[in-house]
Design goal:
Layout: E1 2-3, E2 6-7, H1 8-20, H2 23-36, H3 40-59, H4 61-82, H5 87-108, H6 110-113, H7 119-131, H8 137-150, H9 157-169, E3 171-180, E4 188-198, E5 208-212, E6 216-218, E7 221-230, H10 235-240, E8 241-249, E9 257-265, E10 275-281, E11 284-293
Antiparallel strand pairs: 1-2, 3-7, 3-11, 4-5, 4-6, 4-8, 8-9, 10-11
Helix pairs in contact: 1-3, 2-3, 3-4, 4-5, 4-7, 5-8, 7-8
Amino acid sequence: MSCKGFDIHDVKNKIKEFVEKNAFLNNILTKGAEKTHMEKEMLFMAIVLVALLLIFLIVGGELIIDLVGFAYPMYASLKAIETPTTEDDKQWLTYWVVFSLFKVVEGVADFIVSSIPFYFLFKVSFLIWCYHPSSLGASWVYNTLIKPHVLPLLGLEEEIKVGQSRQEVSRLEVTLKTLDLTPLKRQATIFVEVLVRPDGRPAQGIENCAYKSKTVEGIETITFEQKIVLSPLTDESKSSSQLVFRVKEKSTFGEDNLLGERTTPIKSLDINKPENLIMTICGCDLDADVVFLK
């Protein structure tokens, strides 16, 4: 059973993969499945749904909201701290800034929000929108509301100008255009990771300026039209580093699956001259425009 954006078989496979990694949990579910004549994956989902329902009925929705707003973001933040890239650190730092400000505003306006129908659902949806890879709403809230309106009130205009001037010195603009997923011959949840790799570093070595595209799902040609800016870059970075494109499949549990990657030397790019790159990664054609601005 599947529909656009949701495939029950894919969910069951992810749950099966997660369960089989935990011998104790796998043993309990195996025995439970034998007694109930249910699949382990369906039994696991039923237990989770019942647990959430009991939590909601016993302690109300606040604990569920805390789990949504704290549990996964905390896990992802700890994971980001241990990765060599800094972009995911910025992403989750931005989320926590937005989350903290949201809690302050919510506390001040409690007499208003308490009278809003279905506010619980709105709050859960907002928090998920803030950190979900396909939306990254926290970045939008920060750049649209906090940065132009709150930071000046805190006397941080000079820091904003310095940050903008650094971005204007030298930057690499990558516009992801299309990705043909037809060769995969199956529906998959895909995103493209773009990063700068210092020359001579191993694949899992020190990397910086890593950006993820929006997550897309399908089996045909996907249109991104998404611009990614990697900055600041020095002349040394341009002469010795590589621009890396990675096509990854989103994983519900554990690490995302790397389907393939392609690299191109940044020094091969002419300054201020856009270049179109069409690369074949894991059999899929990725179309992107790249320009080095200085």
